[in-house]
Design goal:
The chain is α/β, with parallel strands linked by helices and 645 residues long. Among the domains are: 143 residues, 3-Layer(aba) Sandwich (Rossmann fold), CATH 3.40.50.980; 122 residues, GMP Synthetase, Chain A, domain 3 (2-Layer Sandwich). The chain contains 20 helices and 31 strands. The strands form 8 sheets. The protein has an 8-stranded mixed beta sheet with strand order 12-11-8-6-7-14-15-24, with helices on both faces. Strands 5-4-17-16-18-19-20 form a 7-stranded mixed beta sheet, sandwiched between helices. Strand 19, helix 15 and strand 20 form a beta-alpha-beta unit. Helix 4 packs antiparallel against helix 5, helix 5 crosses helix 6 and helix 7 crosses helix 8. The structure holds ligand 6R9. The site of ligand 6R9 has 23 residues, from helix 11, strand 20, strand 25 and strand 26.
Length: 645
């Protein structure tokens, strides 16, 4: 059966920067002559010193290095703010929509953003932050989150944003790993009418994070918090004494811009490190290509700043492009399932960029919540974070976009800095569920288990054969792990950890992770991370965690737990373990099912056979495959008999 095809709407074909031929030409040039192609692209950035070299890299072990525009100098914050002051200083840069819809939105022009960021930068400096220092940002989705991030970029400090949903334990680990002496937080966060005790979480984390010396606290809700003398500083007090102007630091293109921790297939989150020049170029270029952003458009990426999507597409990409970017404090379905579309109407949003999990949740609540809003301002819709099922795609297209807005499904990763495979609205005919075609400079290939490159329409593991400017540069503090994780499975290539299919039209379909990472509501969770949390519980002897299909989250977390001898397995303990994991990692790691397992299926060499555990969690017990290599095949019968759900 041929795939459903949604051709480029005539209006987009006419008006967009690139049509199909334009894209092919751009892509062809990017691969044929990368040196001159990327130096030309680099002109979209304001350089303090213009680079004369583009990419200089090798994925081979003997000569492993990745550099882009290494002789260039720039300041990322100046690119996102200062360079717009002359032409669009009075244009709104950030629209902030509060959690509570009865409150007024706030708007900051580029000129106001400049003053706010300078002030924040001066506060950081007054607290001793210098170029190269790490600053942990643990804030809700309030304007100060944007100011803090950009203030770091302005003075050359490296920010590490930690999602506000992470536990004190997870926060402490991230502060310690990058040796960050300063944390920026708020009294409390607000989401869906509920308060999140951010400052109290920092207090709890501080006991386990000896590196931490200073906590800068933004007053967001006015909630009661304990301030520790000599360590804690109210932001508004510190800001009262500083100037609203702060010179920019001239950074080398390869200087680090930020660290963002992400789950991998081993227990400890990796500090993904991004560069200044290459990253900014990638965020800005992909924002323009995928969303054909035009001056005056209101752009809304409905992610949280705590994830890479928020970094690249709420802040860096759109602001580098002089956009009006909307920041939303709350949840997509609060107070009800029409909130997103109400916000669209309230601010005349042109593009919404969100995750399939949010769409599936809204879809469940029914079309009436959408239909009661106008959405006339919308001209483009985007998705990111996980494969979008065609049903959700069609709902987004028909019900939300009333058939007129192309759906831009962007495949990428924390590691890639920005979109890697995605359609261009004026160039690419769409197929629901396919991320379609690669961005300029991106050369994806499929390989089999042995690393043999596969040709034509087929399925395999997804590798990227060459470097691109937005590629991560290292794992903070562990360069060997960077090489080991991404470049040893298929030597000479970057391994994404994803599986994919390429169809007869050369379209790419991402099929999901092929490693021990699961994707819960568009968020990455390492199964090993959840296992480590479970075995910390005094009653747990062993744990194995796998993904299971989940109607809204995409994947849910299914945990098999072996208890210590003599411990009684009951529902109270099950509930306690779920709570335990939430408090160890955070609500995003909440197990959806906990099965008590007297034994786990292991090979004679002691390796847990996850393939079998996955099948049982999926409910697919008729095809467990060969279990004869197990040390004790009988455990499988028990697991099947006591399956949860
Ligand atoms: C940006 C982001 C990365 C993993 C990635 C893949 C999955 C992201 C996707 C997608 C299918 C898409 N993923 N976008 N799968 N289609 N459009 O999500 O980064 O949190 O690091 O997750 O998410 O499995 O490997 P990150």
């Amino acid at each position: 059966m041929p795939d459903e095809l949604y051709p480029v709407p005539a209006e987009w074909a006419r008006s967009a920067r690139y049509d199909a031929a334009g894209y092919e030409k751009l892509y062809g040039r990017s691969l044929a002559d990368p040196g001159s192609f990327w130096l030309e692209q680099a002109k979209r950035i304001d350089w303090i010193k213009r680079p004369e070299i583009a990419g200089d890299w090798s994925f081979d072990e003997a000569d492993f290095h990745i550099e882009w525009f290494a002789d260039g100098k720039l300041n990322v914050a100046a690119n996102c703010i200062d360079r717009h002051l002359a032409g669009r200083g009075d244009q709104v840069a950030i629209i902030w929509e509060p959690d509570d819809p009865s409150e007024d939105a706030r708007r900051f022009t580029y000129r106001e953003l400049h003053a706010e960021v300078c002030r924040f930068a001066n506060v950081l400096k007054s607290q001793g932050v210098k170029r190269g220092d790490r600053v942990t940002i643990y804030l809700p989705m309030i304007p100060e989150a944007a100011f803090a991030v950009l203030a770091c970029a302005r003075i050359g400090a490296i920010h590490s944003v930690v999602f506000g949903g992470f536990s004190p334990e997870a926060l402490a680990g991230r502060i310690t790993d990058c040796d960050s002496a300063v944390v920026v937080t708020a009294d409390e966060g607000r989401r869906g009418g509920k308060r999140v005790p951010l400052k109290a979480n920092v207090d709890a984390a501080a006991d386990r994070a000896p590196a931490l010396k200073t906590v800068i606290v933004v007053k967001a809700t006015g909630g009661e918090v304990a301030m520790q003398n000599g360590r804690d500083v109210w932001y508004h007090d510190a800001a009262a004494g500083v100037a609203a102007d702060c010179p920019v630091e001239a950074m080398n293109a390869e200087d680090p811009l930020f660290i963002l921790y992400t789950s991998g297939s081993t227990g400890k989150p990796k500090g993904v490190l991004h560069s200044s020049g290459g990253y900014l170029l990638w965020a800005s270029l992909t924002h323009e290509l995928c969303f054909d952003y035009r001056p005056g458009d209101v752009w809304w990426c409905a992610a949280d700043i705590g994830w890479v999507t928020g970094h690249s597409y709420i802040l860096y990409g759109p602001l580098a492009n002089g956009a009006t970017t909307l920041m939303y404090e709350g949840l997509p379905n609060w107070p009800d399932a029409s909130r997103i579309w109400q916000v669209v109407d309230r601010h005349r949003v042109h593009t919404v960029f969100t995750a399939p999990t949010a769409l599936r949740a809204l879809m469940k609540d029914g079309d009436a919540f959408v239909a009661r809003t106008s959405r006339k301002s919308l001209k483009l819709l985007g998705t990111v974070g996980e494969p979008i099922n065609p049903e959700a795609w069609r709902w987004y297209h028909e019900v939300v976009g009333e058939g007129r807005c192309p759906i831009i499904d962007t495949w990428w990763q924390t590691e890639t800095g920005g979109a890697m495979i995605a359609p261009l609205p004026g160039a690419t005919d769409l197929k629901p569920g396919s991320a379609t075609k690669p961005m300029p400079g991106v050369d994806p290939q499929l390989v089999d288990e042995k690393g043999t490159v596969l040709h034509g329409a087929t399925e395999g593991n997804l590798i990227i054969t060459r470097s691109w400017p937005g590629q991560m540069r290292t794992v903070w503090g562990d360069h060997a792990r960077f090489f080991q994780t991404y470049f040893t499975t298929y030597p000479g290539n970057y391994f994404t950890g994803d599986g994919a299919r390429r169809d007869e039209d050369g379209y790419w379909w991402i099929t999901g992770r092929v490693d021990d990472v699961i994707n819960v509501s568009g968020h990455r969770m390492g199964t090993a991370e959840v296992e480590s949390a479970l075995v910390l519980h005094p009653m747990v002897a062993e744990a194995a965690v796998v993904g299971m299909p989940h109607e809204v989250k995409g994947q849910g977390i299914y945990a098999y737990v072996t208890l210590n001898a003599g411990v009684t397995a009951d529902d109270a303990l099950r509930a306690e373990l779920v709570k335990w994991v939430r408090s160890e990692i955070g609500p995003i790691a909440t197990p959806d099912a906990v099965q008590f397992a007297p034994g786990l299926p292991k090979t004679r060499s002691g390796k847990i056979m996850r393939r079998i555990l996955r099948k049982i969690a999926e409910g697919d017990v008729s095809s467990l495959g060969d279990t004869s290599t197990l040390a004790d095949p009988a455990v499988v019968d028990d697991l099947v008999a006591n399956r949860v759900g």
